[in-house]
Design goal:
The complex is a heterodimer. Chain A is α/β, with parallel strands linked by helices. Chain A has 20 helices and 22 strands. The longest helix of chain A is centred in the C-terminal third of the chain and has 25 residues. Chain A is globular. The chains are: A alpha/beta, B alpha/beta.
Chain lengths: 628, 312
């Protein structure tokens, strides 16, 4: 086996400690000098059900979960509802071993807990193993854990077994365990770890897979998209968040909630998402940099306050963590089909900005940018991501976060500046002046002397009072629209779109958000195989980078739009914004709840290059360009 | 006195005319509308309390009542239907030195915004909520509202409403408001006194304000005579006793539809800490207003780099 990477899958039930075990294992790999990338798969239930985390580790940049996996640690589901009887969903207890075995690569390794999983229940495991060249190592992890401590420590036994099989040093694992626990618990866990390591080391090993080695130039940190969003918000000076729990937005919300009170900020858990967004509007109006957010269903409730923020020009940042819809959909599975919802919800002409970051670093940068734009231009900005990016951990240089905070309130006056600013004859501040640079009229904050005005969701005069005057209406509409043009110019300076691959390629891929890293890997792989391909990753969803996308599409013969949506929303956006480019576009769609894997992208490109006709083998849909 | 917000906490005489916009917009309210009574009482109360117009944030909902801050000069936020409370209470959290008042109609507060009403009362934010209760949807031309009596006929209830009206005072008490009163536009002196008490109270004050709608419902005469339950010899109860308050509220709510207009203070709990106090005692909210931080040039802002060690 020639794998230069380890893709380790730890599978069990919800509540089995899969998350914390995998986190520490990923950190150990990171500390050893490897780049890591995690992928989390879990059901919408508290305990039991088939859960796994995959950790991909290799020397050098990892931008996707990869294709399949090469090491399975099957713990068994200790919370299975029907451990002994055959039920309609099959025997839950053995699912960690039997589910998605198809994705295990040829020559891969299986370690399973024979204390919980009976090989006989798995049916034709032996046969399958022989066919695929799998190396199977049954081990009574439960007994091992119980011998030194408690049954829950079988995760530790599994990690010890893994380390022994892939020839991995225990140092980093021990250090991380010592960071996380102490006393008897630590002692017992260390005993379990070492005993498992030694027992497995003494077994006959039939496989070749070893953990790769690598090195980093500087210290690394392991962060998820949700952490990066929260840190970007904190560094932008956000000190107010209001929300209502909903998967997957809850991740970022709880990270913020745990940090804000200790730094003089406020987090509010409120009655519903209407209140959540309206409160962020109220707090921002009163002078605090504020945010709220939700996932699709909760964001639907935010439509009205979002429109209020647009009309009153209250700066606001909202998060939208997409999951598969419509309605409740699949709460713990990713999709990119809330794009149109976020861009167009709320009545009237939209005035909002939306970003779709691709990875934790962009989550951080674009959340910071979101606050800057929101406060400089007095407009709501939505950071649109998804379940995949929310819980996806990657290593980043620690120094990446060594940045100056940017708490500036943007176009906001101090009391000293107010007397020189325009007021009406009665002393009311002209909050919404007609002719101002970039369409942005500076705001005042309640409590400031000389700055009082009326903020209203109704159309209004410069002093904020309700007006249906025709000339004023036209002036206000045009001023608000002017802000979007200024923002587009501002964003052009920031270059949030990313180009990949061979500039001269005739075939291109267009992608946004969490699927971008997968396309990046596929493009690199094809170019390495001398198949010239390029890609454009778009982050500015509104206002849309029309010139960059037009230039890209014009430079190729065919462009494949890759997105997790069955109705081609990203493609629709491009056609609406860029115009008549539909003939050149084909679509690669996936909506089964699993994110794309790189090989699916490669396959689609090859089919397109062959002139179409063939069907993709994975659960993806390829719709050829109309021009073909 | 705050450096960033010098309108706040200034100790000075305030004239009620300071709350009248220099060029007063022509009110869109009908002649004889009870809303004028709220405007007048609020101006009087704020002047009596010596509040600077610029230390007040008056957040309103949608409807005739929502235009209150068009005719009351202070910082104002005319929000959306039913959402004045979340906007207002968040502003209070952002800068707890502000004097925050929210106002809206009975449809706004007890109907579409009912959930926010319950939860804002439950949290006991230190603010005042005035509900213009005219027992009808006025601005949209007389449809049945949450406080319309059972049997109320309108274009949306042609056979007469089959619903019992909301019990606003009881709902408020059950939800957790720590000051509950009812007053009426026809009783300007009592209205101003009650608003003064409500604003001074350290907690969520709910004032159900009977505002006659002469166009779509009753004219002023139909709210007369009114009875002040504190002044009448017919009623004797302790406003600090939840059970007695509940009983008095029930009688008040039922008698309104029988033609007897009872008003006054119904419940007052001065011992219950406000939401701000509760949060501060838990280390969940700073002592200084959060909004001040942005104007403090010496502030050292925490940054994420200070805690990335946990990710190593």
């Amino acid at each position: 086996m020639t794998d230069d990477e380890l893709i380790w899958r730890i599978a069990g039930g919800s509540g089995d400690g899969i998350d914390s075990t995998s986190q520490n294992f990923a950190k150990a790999l990171m500390r050893s000098g490897l780049d890591v990338f995690t992928h989390r798969h879990y059901p919408s239930r508290i305990r039991g059900g088939h859960t796994y985390v995959e950790i991909r580790a290799k020397d050098g940049n990892v931008t996707s979960r990869g294709d399949g996996y090469n090491f399975l640690l099957a713990l068994g589901d200790s919370f299975a509802r029907n451990p002994t009887e055959e039920a309609v969903y099959g025997d839950e207890e053995v699912k960690p071993l039997t589910e998605n075995l198809d994705d295990l690569r040829e020559g891969g390794i299986i370690v399973y807990d024979e204390g919980l999983l009976d090989e006989e229940d798995v049916g034709d495991l032996e046969e399958q193993a022989e066919e695929n060249g799998w190396h199977v190592y049954p081990l009574d992890l439960r007994a091992l854990a119980k011998e030194h401590g408690r049954e829950v420590m079988r995760n530790t036994a599994g990690v010890g077994a893994t380390a022994a099989l892939v020839d991995m040093d225990l140092d980093h694992i021990e250090d991380l365990m010592a960071d996380a626990m102490g006393g008897d618990i630590l002692e017992q866990n260390l005993e379990v770890l070492h005993d498992a390591y030694e027992q497995v080391s003494e077994m006959d090993h039939t496989h070749d897979l070893t953990v790769p080695t690598g090195s980093h130039d500087e210290e690394q940190v392991l962060v998820s998209g949700s952490h990066a969003i929260a840190y970007g918000a904190i560094d932008a000076g956000c000190r107010f968040i209001s929300g209502y729990p909903m998967t997957p937005w809850t991740d970022a919300y709880t990270i913020m909630t745990q940090l804000l009170p200790d730094m003089g900020g406020i987090s509010e858990q409120v009655e519903d998402e209407i209140a959540a967004a309206a409160m962020a509007v109220g707090a921002s109006h009163a002078g605090v940099k504020s945010m709220s957010g939700s996932s699709g269903g909760g964001f639907a409730l935010m439509s009205e306050p979002l429109g209020l923020a647009e009309m009153t020009e209250t700066p606001l940042v909202l998060l939208e963590a997409q999951r598969a819809g419509p309605s409740t959909g699949m709460p713990t599975k990713p999709e990119q089909a809330d794009l149109e919802h976020v861009l167009y919800t709320s009545q009237g002409d939209s005035h909002r900005v939306a970003f779709g970051p691709k990875d934790p670093k962009e989550c951080y940068e674009q959340t910071r940018t979101a606050f800057e734009i929101a406060y400089d231009y007095q407009i709501p900005v939505v950071v649109l991501y998804d379940q995949k990016l929310s819980g996806e951990y990657r290593n980043v240089d620690a120094s990446f976060f060594d940045r100056e905070p940017a708490p500036d309130l943007g176009k906001t006056l101090t009391e000293d500046q107010i007397p020189d600013a325009p007021h009406d004859a009665t002393g009311k501040y002209h909050r919404y002046q007609h002719d101002v640079e970039d369409g942005v009229s500076p705001r005042t904050i309640p409590g400031q002397k000389g700055g009082h005005y009326l903020a209203s969701g109704n159309e209004h005069w410069p002093n904020g009072h309700i007006s249906e005057d025709r000339d004023n209406r036209v002036a206000q509409v045009e001023r608000r629209l002017q802000k979007l043009e200024a923002i587009r110019d501002d964003l052009d300076e920031r270059e949030q779109q990313t180009h990949y691959g061979d500039e001269d390629a005739d075939i291109g891929l267009l992608v946004w958000g969490s699927q971008e890293g997968t396309v990046e890997e596929a493009v690199a792989r094809m170019n390495d195989d001398e198949n010239s391909v390029k890609a454009l990753g778009v982050s500015d969803m509104m206002p849309f980078p029309v010139d960059a996308v037009r230039e890209f599409v014009e430079s190729v013969d065919e462009a494949i739009v890759v997105e997790m949506s069955s109705t081609k929303q990203f493609r629709g956006l491009m056609q609406k914004e860029v115009g008549d480019i539909g003939d050149k576009l084909s679509s690669l769609l996936k909506y089964n709840g699993d994110p794309f894997e790189p090989h699916e992208i490669v396959e689609a490109v090859e089919i397109a290059q062959d002139g179409g006709g063939a069907e993709p083998t994975a659960q993806t849909t390829l719709e050829p360009a109309a021009g073909d | 006195m705050s450096k960033a917000f010098s309108a706040i906490g200034e100790d000075r005489e305030v004239d009620r005319d300071e709350f009248t916009p220099g060029v007063e917009p022509q009110p869109t309210w009908c002649p004889g509308c009870g809303d004028f009574g709220v405007l007048k009482a609020l101006k009087g109360a704020m002047a009596e309390l010596g509040k600077d117009p610029e230390e007040i944030l008056l957040a309103t909902g949608i409807g005739c009542s929502g235009k209150l801050n068009s005719y009351f000069d202070s910082y104002g936020f005319h929000t959306i239907h039913g959402r004045s409370l979340p906007v207002a209470r968040a502003a209070k959290l952002a800068n707890h030195d502000l004097e925050v008042v929210a106002a809206g109609g009975d449809g706004d507060g007890y109907g579409i915004g009912g959930n926010h009403f319950m939860h804002t009362a439950r949290e006991n934010h230190d603010m005042t909520y005035i509900v213009f209760n005219n027992e009808v949807f006025g601005l949209t031309k007389g449809q049945t509202s949450p406080t319309s009596p059972k049997g109320h006929k309108s274009k949306t209830q042609p056979h007469g409403s089959a619903k019992d009206p909301i019990r606003p005072l009881s709902l408020s008490l059950t939800s957790g408001a720590s000051y509950v009163a009812r007053t009426a536009a026809v009783n300007p002196n009592q209205a101003q006194e009650i608003l003064v008490e409500a604003i001074e109270h350290d907690g969520f004050s709910h004032v159900d304000f009977l505002t006659q709608c002469p166009t779509w419902n009753k004219d002023a005469k139909q709210y007369v005579p009114y009875v002040d339950v504190q002044e009448s010899d017919d009623y004797d109860f302790d406003v600090t006793d939840r059970r007695q308050a509940q009983e008095m509220m029930t009688e008040t709510e039922e008698s309104l539809y029988e033609g007897t207009v009872l008003t006054g203070r119904y419940y007052k709990d001065e011992d219950r800490p406000s939401y701000q106090q509760e949060k501060q005692s838990r280390g969940d909210m700073p002592e200084e207003p959060v909004a001040e931080q942005y104007f403090d040039e010496d502030k050292e802002w925490e940054r994420s780099f200070d805690f990335v060690d946990r990710h190593k």
